[in-house]
Amino acid sequence: MAAAPSHPRRGRLLLIVVVALLLRAMAVAAAAAFRARDVLPLLPRRVAWQLMGATAHSAVDLLPSFVAAVAPGGAPAAWRGACFADNQAVLSLIPGGGAGSGAAGRNGTGGGISGNTSSSSSLGGAVIHLKTASPESWTCMDLYVFATPYRIAWDYYMRSNENHTFEIKAWEEAAELEYVKQHGIAVFLMPSGMLGMLLSLVDVIPLFSNTGWGQDANLAFLKKHMGTSFQKRSQPWSANIRREDVHSGDFLALSKIRGRWGGFQTLEKWVTGAFAGHTAVFLKDENGTLWVAESGYENKKGDEIISMTPWDEWWGMALKDDSNPQIALLPLHPDVRARFNESAAWNFARSMYGKPYGYHNMIFSWIDTMSENYPPPLDSNLVMAIMSMWTRLQPHYASNMWNEALNKRLGTEKLDLHGIITETERRGLSFNQLLTIPERDDWEYSDGKSTTCVAFILSMYKAAGVFAPFTESIQVTEFTIRDAYMLKIFEDNQTRLPGWCNAAADMLPFCQILGEYKMDLPEYNTIEPYANMNENCPSAPPTYNRPAGC
Ligand SMILES: *[C@@H]1O[C@H](CO)[C@@H](O)[C@H](O)[C@H]1NC(C)=O
Ligand SMILES: *[C@@H]1O[C@H](CO)[C@@H](O)[C@H](O)[C@H]1NC(C)=O
Ligand SMILES: *[C@@H]1O[C@H](CO)[C@@H](O)[C@H](O)[C@H]1NC(C)=O
Ligand SMILES: *[C@@H]1O[C@H](CO)[C@@H](O)[C@H](O)[C@H]1NC(C)=O
Ligand SMILES: *[C@@H]1O[C@H](CO)[C@@H](O)[C@H](O)[C@H]1NC(C)=O
Ligand SMILES: *[C@@H]1O[C@H](CO)[C@@H](O)[C@H](O)[C@H]1NC(C)=O
To answer: What span is annotated as the signal peptide, if there is one (predicted)?
Structure first.
């Protein structure tokens, strides 16, 4: 039934990531305006979709198709499936207090993830009653994804004239119930080859649990798939930093291992090969006050923006963070610090202050080489599928998110996703080739320049002269977090690291300032900057081999 891919495990895991990404994407997009950092880095560079494609005439044929929105009350929704010609569905709301028997449908087959697994049932839930009839053959099946901006779940149906139910145990929050009352639950008919992928998602769910069990799941995943070792550090696990020893431009690498951020960072790390999931940078003002500048700070409204936070406040939040962050401080090398133009760095930071997090270019920082293992268009199909589903659910965010970036690559304006795909094919390009056109640092989007957490820091470095003499020939939007900490610009003499950072005891080449486990940044501080750096680098688990000069 499921695909028989040539790299079964890898293919399967990549698919898991993509779907997890979609789930989170939708949860996040509606819940708090938008937190794309959770999401986009997870889209893999290479995704196989083995079953499909062989028979498709055009890439557009591979998209999941929206078949119905099932809303409470009113006439039943009806549609034609790939297997069953006559399908009907009605949605009944279950009042609060009475939780159902499980959101996952049948035993171990259907399933889903929502943004908050601990939500209470006081808002109630819902049941979709489905009828499937008039199958094309006795063995065929239809595979569906049920989605709201807050969740995604799936199930499949093989028998005719049956009354199926699909249960949503509890709404995420009042806004989800409101959304469903107005727009219904979107039903997408999926190409049936995706079944294996959906089934395997069950493995990922514990990564998002904000418990000791969830943390163990994250550590186990990283150990197994990235070969990370989690060795306990010597005490103290939290450093008392001395401000005099910290300077403008010093880099902060964060790794969260628990709860929803932990789960996403885990998948992000695995896809990009980075052993850290977020980054920030120190700036000192003329009065010696220490600030942390970062892209991806969550403000009170829940938007992710570029901000500058006084160190004490930032550190206080880190200590309270229930995602159990491990934090490393990577001091600049004294020679680099000597040419670091502090006032240019401040000017840059001030010019970006308050701008939104850079979701436009996120995806493109790692999709930059053509797939080696899978012929186009297979490897980008899933990316396309996700874009298409998201476009349906969150048209506004979707167009912000990638349509603008894809239009820039084509030199077109305002084409929607279908228009983009059609135009790409008309030019004889595959969708994958379109995705691999490099981002340019000087592209400006409708909401300004786009910088991810690491692109923000590296752009600041660029402004401050860190990359001289290659300043003009380095496109920092091509860099992942891993690419950033591999740059040979950091302190390389362990004896010069400040005493409070305890590096000698743990034999680390940098300062770790928080966390119970030793952070491991393979190939830290090894690659001198060069022109056109990282514009053609693959990143394939589990070794993440990086060809020299890519
Ligand atoms: C689900 O599992 C339970 C216990 O394992 C079993 O009693 C029940 O019949 C199963 N239901 C279906 C629909 O397979
Ligand atoms: C999950 O939902 C519960 C109850 O609605 C809420 O108290 C909690 O803060 C939510 N957690 C997250 C991580 O959103
Ligand atoms: C499905 O439900 C309808 C009523 O809603 C009932 O008449 C029919 O017998 C049910 N079919 C099966 C197979 O249980
Ligand atoms: C530095 O201190 C002076 C005097 O207290 C103050 O006027 C100035 O605004 C301070 N600069 C910054 C960047 O906070
Ligand atoms: C540092 O940057 C500022 C502002 O961009 C500029 O005026 C100054 O000349 C630069 N200093 C050096 C030494 O390059
Ligand atoms: C490292 O720094 C110490 C103290 O500044 C110095 O004595 C030593 O020579 C340095 N080692 C290297 C390899 O540069």
So the answer is: 1-31
